[in-house]
Specification:
This protein is α/β, with parallel strands linked by helices and 390 residues long. Helices cover 23% and strands 28% of the residues. It has a 6-stranded antiparallel beta barrel with strand order 13-16-15-14-18-19. Strands 3-2-1-4-7 form a 5-stranded parallel beta sheet, sandwiched between helices. Strand 1, helix 1 and strand 2 form a beta-alpha-beta unit.
């Protein structure tokens, strides 16, 4: 196959490209320039897309003996990932930019361009597995599964890609159980990035100051911090800088009457108000999601029965995860249809409640290691558990 290897300049993508070459594929390396104002060097382990990273990717491609190109996707990145990040925070929601990058850049812009150029697949350094299975009727489906490396597993942020794009994706690192194994493979191949630190945090906020980034882009918008009864207990420079579950940096002018810590329990963008309250108000056992994406063959026969009349599907047992490195917990899930006909889902937690679930986060549905689907959280609340169905 003709494979386009996305090369970030890090060790994971370099080894993924090397494994694609070893598998006998015709591989071309490409580095995505995503920042309009790239720095010469990264700040330690923060940030990415620097000129240094592009150089590291080129040197890895030279070692592997494959062609190498740099594609400028900075405008697309700014108009989709960064714009979504800003608009979601401005609306009082909590986005995950890695999910949107996979959706709009790596498995939309990059994959679509690769397909147009005649490539059969895109290989990346993500930690996840693609399992191909043949159904009883002879049809073939591709399943997205967790990596055996639980610490690095990235199936959560990949769930948004959906079944059609999964068919053209390769994750050569899927079988590695530890990052040390990947670094050893890089060293064995003479790749200079074998000891390069991992990047972390939000790639386009290289200094890690998310609040400062939002303030620079959205401007100061002073408003009130109020208790659940509406009493003003502090001030803020912009409600967009707060997220549900936050405890630190609230700048409260008076302690709670009972002396207990207070947390952000709501961000009301329409009134530019931050609401704080006790920890128990963060506990939820029901979650609704919008813009749902399901993988082929993932739903049980009755689980996706949300027919043309807009009826909701039947409940089925699964596990859900609401944070990239959170634990998956037992739940009952059903597909839903919104008033506009859009695909959604509803989750009733059965194992235990969750705390601090915010609108804008991704909720990913699993069955064991298999990813069934994903949606963006639109609401989370406390309700009585859903009764089991026959």
């Amino acid at each position: 196959m003709r494979v386009l290897a996305a090369m970030s300049g890090g060790v994971d993508s370099a080894v993924a490209a090397a494994l694609a070459v070893e598998a006998g594929h015709e591989v071309v390396g490409v580095h995505m320039a995503l920042s309009r104002n790239r720095d010469q060097f990264r700040t330690g382990s923060r940030g990415c897309c620097s000129i240094e990273d592009a150089g590291d990717a080129r040197r890895a491609a030279d070692v592997l003996g494959i062609p190498y190109y740099v594609w400028d996707l900075s405008e697309r990145f700014e108009d989709t990932v960064v714009a979504d990040f800003l608009s979601e925070y401005e609306a009082g929601r909590t986005p995950n930019p890695c999910v949107r990058c996979n959706e709009h850049i790596k498995f939309e812009a990059l994959l679509d361009k690769a397909t147009a150029l005649g490539f059969d697949a895109v290989a990346t350094g993500h930690y996840a597995q693609v399992v191909t299975r043949t159904l009883p009727d002879g049809a073939t489906v591709h399943e997205l599964h967790r990596s055996p490396n639980a610490e690095k597993d990235q199936s959560y942020v990949l769930a948004v890609m959906g079944p059609q794009r999964l068919e053209r994706a390769m994750f050569p690192l899927g079988g590695f159980a530890t990052k040390d194994e990947v670094r050893a493979e890089a060293a064995r191949r003479g790749l200079s990035v074998s000891a390069k630190p991992d990047s972390y945090d939000i790639c386009f906020v290289a200094d890690g100051d998310t609040r400062g980034f939002l303030r620079d882009r959205l401007g100061a918008r002073p408003g009130a911090v109020v208790d659940t009864d509406g009493t003003v207990v502090g001030e803020h420079d912009g409600a967009y800088a707060y997220t549900v579950g936050q405890r630190r940096g609230l700048g409260l002018g008076r302690p709670a009457a009972d002396g207990r810590p207070r947390y952000v329990v709501d961000v009301r963008a329409d009134t530019n108000t931050v609401v704080v309250g006790p920890a128990e108000l963060l506990t939820v056992d029901r979650i609704a999601g919008e813009r749902a994406v399901w993988f082929a063959g993932a739903l049980p026969a009755d689980g996706g029965a949300d027919g043309a009349d807009g009826a909701d599907g039947e409940w089925f047992d699964a596990q859900v995860q609401v944070r990239a490195h959170g634990a998956a917990i037992g739940a009952r899930v059903r597909t839903t249809r919104g008033p506009d006909g859009g695909a959604g889902l509803e989750v009733a937690l059965t194992e235990r409640p969750l705390r601090g679930v915010a609108a804008g986060q991704s909720v990913v549905v699993y069955r064991g290691t298999q990813v069934l689907g994903q949606a963006t959280v639109s609401r989370a609340w406390r309700a009585a558990p859903v009764a089991a169905t026959a």
